[in-house]
What we know:
By secondary structure, the chain is mainly α. The protein has helices at residues 3-8, 10-16, 73-85, 101-106, 146-151, 168-193, 201-218, 224-231, 234-261, 266-277, 288-333, 339-348, 355-375, 391-408, 415-434, 453-465, 474-485, 489-498, and strands spanning 25-30, 38-43, 56-60, 122-124, 131-133, 138-139.
Amino acid sequence: MDRSDHHAVSDVIEHCGRERHPPTHVVERVVPDHCDVTQRCCYVGPGLADCDREVSDVVSKNVDRTNLAGHDINERIGAVTALEQDGVTTQFGDAHMRPHRDDQRENGDTERDDDQDISRGWIEGHAGKGNRRLGSPQRRRPPRSPARQHARCAIVGTGVKGWADVNVGHALAILLGLFLIAGAASSVMRTLIAPRGLRSRLAMVTQQIVLVIYRTVAHRRSTYEGRDSVMTWAAPTTIVATLVVWLLNFFVGYALLLFGFSQLGFGFCLRESGSSLFTLGFAATDEPRIEAIDFMAAATGPIVIGLFIGYLSSLYGAYNRRETDVTLLHARAGEPNWGPELLGRHAVVGILDELAPLWHEWERWAADVGESHTNYGVLVHVRSSKPERNWLIALLSILDAIAMQLALNPDLPEGRARVALRQGFVCLHDIADSERIAYEADPDPETPIAVSEEEFAEACRALVTVGYPMTRDPHEAYPHFRGWRVNYEKIAYELARRIDAVPALWSGPRTPPLAPIAPVRPENRMPGGRSRRLNESD
């Protein structure tokens, strides 16, 4: 083949994606009736004959491509026949065609005469006829299945299907690809952008699968510290897994679109989809319709990752705001936090007048947590920096302390306490809606609660020993305490079970059961000592 012929088929080489070697032959492939297209392939080296359909091949030396372009199949066959009559060497028969090398030597074309590697391309026949090397004896191998033949067919000529050429399988691939892309895009919008607490089903399923795996492992630990060490990684894994699931849906979805709109094999479609989605650019097809899909994929990857980075910033901002007040509660209510402990410590150090400002701070805290933990549901499962510290237990201790104050001291100003208590169980109601936890919005105050009257009376006796004032008898105050606690107890207990919160006093059971942990009470070490300690009675 001379240099002019080399330029004549250079664009065919582009479509074959084989520019590493100069062309040796152009193969005009007459495709069966069910394909309705004619493909053109180039064979330029070992193992590069990738068109494996049941076709009739005509291999011709120095074929002028312009004599074959733009005609139907019968006209192409006629054109090749005319070339044979003009002395161009071709060979029909059972689809094993090869040029005569004697003609090459006679014409002085010795540059690629017998190049040991390049001119030994495989010409593969049809209907199980096997294959053979150029210039070597015929070698046979088992026929490929039609499905495998279809998958390995090279993209030649246009490489893109018209609407009339799209069969049922490719149409289903297009629909499935659109479904995956639309589902992932909707999940990204709901999770990262829409500020309405909309929960994506895809993200929720991913989260539940990760949590089930971690809970299964954590529940094998016999101590709370062991469980906490396992569950610490549940939320971070959920965040990363959600991103992976989104990218995987886009990756497969765009690959299915490429497969549906082209004659590319699905493996190559996956390769091109990944190259575009992650902006690597190592695989591309020079066709307008496929390029449009590549552009969409190339825009999708950076947009999703950019939004995800902003999402992480919002998560950590909300987490830091939440944990600041939870950490401040350590000195006021011990760890794990407990409502009666909070009242007792304020009584010991004589700062009961600071309870009203504290209720106001936690009113704002509850509003912030209710908003952030419904918009970013994974925050519910993000644990504190220490095993004994937990945002839900902190909120529960504040609500119990307010309920006890209202029940035991009705003469004290109730405004800030009642507003903070109301905001606290509204926060829990919002999170319960987001986590699909059933509850009664306006429960009967007479409904029994988990904290019995004996437990309540015992806590009141401990408060008396540290000097907390009471104007109501515990027996008389218990119905009022029960009427307040019924608004939030069920939700708090269910959330504590789901997130494996530290088993503090009055925080409900765990699965599997764990013994409740009482807060550590510091001793009074003032010079000369005082008459009472938090853990002692008169």
